[in-house]
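Reagents: none. Just compute today. Major facilitator superfamily multidrug transporter.
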Amino acid sequence: MYLPSIVLFAIMDNDRFLIYSSALVIMGLSNAVIPILPELSATGQIYGINSSSLVYSSFFLGALSTMLPFGILSDRTDNLKLVSLGLLLSFISGLCMIFTDSFIIFVSARFIEGAACGAFFPAAYSRLARYTKRARYMGEFSFLINAGLAAGVAVTGYLVHSNIKNGIILFSILTFLTIIFAIYRSIVSSNTIATITSQKKIIEREHPSSHIFTSKDTRGIWIISFILAGSSGVLISLYPEYGTDTLSKTELGISISLLYVSTMISSLVTSYVNIGYAKLIKIGIMIATIGILVTINSSMAGFFIIGIGSGLMLVGLPIAIASMNIEKGMAMGIYNTCIYAGLALMPLIAGVLANSLEVKTIFFITAILFGLTIFLNRD
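Predicted 3D structure written out:
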């Protein structure tokens, strides 16, 4: 599965290598916690029965509270300094989880991990947006994000038998090695001042910040991004209950993993296809909507189809932002904030609705809501 990841690193400049490798290790470390949440949260049972949820959700709180501030900052400083900061915060988080069993520190470490993503993503997207081959590079970037997420879960699950923290240890080491490369890159690079100057000149030519929030084009992107991430979150959070009588744990795991795999494949293939971002988003919405409906009767086929549509959109949406005459860092910060807000809020709303509606009905409503976003996509 990860052979394409190795190929992507074979020939590229130092900046892209840093961004790509950072995506793998940061996302890998963030998901290395998932298979061992019950064990990490065991010492927190005195704080309530939802200690696992607290450890899990603190990551999103960290990301949500830092995405926009770091996005604004990335327009005013060297993007790769913030990428390096994301690596450092991620490494600190890993060390905290490795060397302690304190529940409070685990929660704090997950918050720091979320802040690492807050520093990393807007800066990374903003940097890639300035390449002439941004469509290709953003597709590769999306592929590596999902590869990192999948690797974090898979590697931890494989290594957990000897030590439950082995996955965290491994990805912390890889993060440290990436930090060393970031230091090397900062020493040998002579483009930092030119980069900052170039960014400032671009900002001066771009529309004022308020335009990012008030424009019809950008509002549509924010809503689509929120519902895209939120819909996947709804399905992943409710499907274990929905499939209790029809799916084994293994089948459920395979079904959800197909979402990651198909997203990886779709985003990578899309990056090499010459299709406008508006068409990518529109086709992605239609495919993902069909996928949500299919999950009602077939989990594996449904999740796979959703992943295909999501991959198209995860390439199309950043390209749409990169093509606009707006501050890229702030815009990418808002985009990623909407992604994480959708992941955090829509499953919560769906969970409340599940007390009064059948899960099948919630899936159908989610599909309709997702399908309606096609009218927000502007050519």
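The chain has a mean pLDDT of 85.
Action item: order primers for follow-up constructs.
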